[in-house]
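Reviewers of the previous submission asked for a worked example of the structure-prediction workflow described in the proposal, so we include one complete record here. The input consisted solely of the amino acid sequence. No template or homolog information was supplied to the procedure at any stage.
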Amino acid sequence: MVSGGDAAVVLKDGKNSEAGMALLEYLATPEAAAVWAEAGGFISPNKNLDPASYGDDVTRATAESLVGAGDSVRFDMSDQAPAAFGGTKGTASGRSSRTSCATPPTRRPPPPSWKPRLPRPTRADRP
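From that input alone, the workflow returned the following structure tokens.
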């Protein structure tokens, strides 16, 4: 199974590296994973997370499949790696990290310039 995900880091020379490490240690707990799972849009590889934490059957089944895959799971970061390393052209982990740090994981409304894409009409849609 190939998987992707988010990464969190603490800079060793940062002003609050001890607090940062404490946060990362908390985020690795099943209690923290449950908060994210209940909010939706998140699947945890934490084996101690109760699958009942997921709000719907599809996400729950996907999470159980991920955890059940065990050591056969491979983390794919190709969409975050620079193109020189075989990643998707135009993206890089540095940009992703800066964006993730600047925008906390909350559900924000779309920007005012965002417009939903409407499906293109087909011949069947024409009178």
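The two ends are 46 Å apart (CA to CA). We consider this example representative of the routine output the project will generate in years two and three.
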